[in-house]
Amino acid sequence: MDLSVMFFGADAGDARHSQTYDDILTIARTADRLGFHAVWTPERHFQQVGQVFPSPPVLSAALAVATERIGIRAGSVVLPLHHPLRVAEDWAVVDNLSHGRVGLSVATGWHSADFVLSPDTYADRRERMLRDIPLLRRLWAGESEEFPDGTGAMARVLPQPRPVQETLPLWMTTSGNPATWEAAGRLRTGVLGATVGQSRDELAEKIAIYRTACATAPDQHGTGPNGRVTLMAHTYVGVDDEQAQRLAAAPLTTYLKSYVRQTSANKSADKRTAELTDEQTSLLAEFAFRRYLTWGALLGSAETCRKSLADLRDLGVDEIACFIDFGLGLDEVLAGLHRLAELRKEF
Question: Could you tell me which residue ranges the Luciferase-like domain spans (predicted)?
Answer without folding.
Answer: 1-319
